[in-house]
Design a protein that fits this description.
By secondary structure, the chain is of the alpha/beta class. It has one domain: Alpha-Beta Barrel (TIM Barrel), CATH 3.20.20.190. Helices cover about 30% and strands about 15% of the residues. Helix 1 packs parallel to helix 4. The protein is globular, with a radius of gyration of 19 Å.
């Protein structure tokens, strides 16, 4: 077991509402974001892709059919690969779709015990979500921040669209411009994140997301990034990393103690905050005995500085910060 990174150079751990409180309401819907805000999350996450008419929308995937009724409303608009892409639709068209909980091919629910109902919940733009956050903060006196991801920038560029400058422009319109603002900007693409820092001149706090090379999220060598030398390179353009939970803590078998990698300690040594993804009470790491054990391994044994959580109230409760909604 690697030594725990027990110091807290970045302050108390934060809870990031992953796609909102999506354990309770459809991901990236306004109700999911408002509920996460009410539960006390420190940051609300926005994944951002572009529409055909260049509107940055808050949506996790490049394709639409897993969380909307696009296949019913626009049956003839799918591509030859069997998918419906957000970039093929105008914003006005996308607003006619209804959001629902994520489904698998064939229609089965990805997480069967979640909300599961069909309501007229809509896709919205990044600007609309930031308006919602601003209004909620004003009404409640809170200062909940935003945590925005530039999704698949190389894919967008190959389609003739440059996503990052549009995201930065909208964020700036709402006052998110510097490292002092309540905003983190994340991306899986290391080259794009460095471009955001040096070519586009962003002063926001940047987070290098770290996946597995097999996922093909970007032309980035994540194995290399997880080394001390790789982390030192990340620190030249970013303030943090966002690794997958399994890159930090694993349970080799039922009943076994968790194995903690050196990744958090190495990142801290490079001056980088660590915000891990994604905690789900209905999809715990393999062999983790329960939700508290999983979070104890991350927050206490490994010393992560933040956690993306589908269930922000559960993560806040673990940290002793839960405030039930009135």
């Amino acid at each position: 077991m690697a030594p725990a990174s027990t110091s807290r150079p970045f302050g108390p751990p934060i809870v990031i509402a992953h796609r909102g409180a999506c354990g309770y309401l459809p991901e990236h819907s306004f109700p999911a974001k408002a509920y996460a805000h009410a539960l006390g999350a420190d940051f609300l996450e926005q994944d951002v892709v572009l529409t055909r008419d260049d509107v940055p929308i808050v949506f996790h995937d490049l394709i639409l059919e897993e969380v909307t009724d696009v296949a019913t409303l626009f049956a003839s608009r799918g591509r030859a690969d069997g998918h419906w892409y957000a970039i093929d639709f105008s914003y006005a068209e996308l607003q006619t779709l209804a959001l629902h909980d994520r489904i698998e091919t064939g229609g089965a629910a990805t997480w069967p015990h979640r909300f599961g109902e069909r309501l007229p919940l809509r896709i919205h733009s990044l600007a609309e979500e930031l308006t919602l956050v601003r209004g909620l903060n004003r009404a409640t006196g809170k200062s909940v921040g935003v945590y925005t991801e530039v999704k698949s920038p190389a894919w967008h560029r190959a389609a003739g669209k440059d996503l990052a400058p549009r995201v930065l422009s909208v964020l700036a319109d709402f006052g998110y411009r510097t490292a002092a603002d309540a905003c983190w900007l994340q991306c899986f693409d290391a080259a794009e994140l460095a471009r955001i820092r040096f070519e586009l001149g962003s002063q926001l706090r940047l987070v290098q997301l770290i996946g597995e090379n097999a996922w093909a999220e970007a032309a980035t060598d994540y194995d290399a990034l997880r080394t001390p030398a790789g982390l030192a390179g990340v620190a030249r353009y970013a303030q943090g990393i966002g690794p997958w939970i399994a890159q930090i803590a694993t349970w080799p078998s039922a009943g076994a103690a968790p194995l903690i990698s050196s990744l958090v300690a190495d990142a801290h040594a490079a001056g980088l905050a660590v915000h891990a993804y994604t905690f789900r009470i209905d999809q715990l790491p393999a062999h983790a005995p329960d939700a508290d054990a999983a979070q104890r391994a991350l927050f206490e044994l490994a010393g992560v500085d933040g956690l993306f959580s589908d269930f922000p109230d559960v993560s806040l409760a673990f940290l002793g910060r839960r405030k039930d909604c009135p």
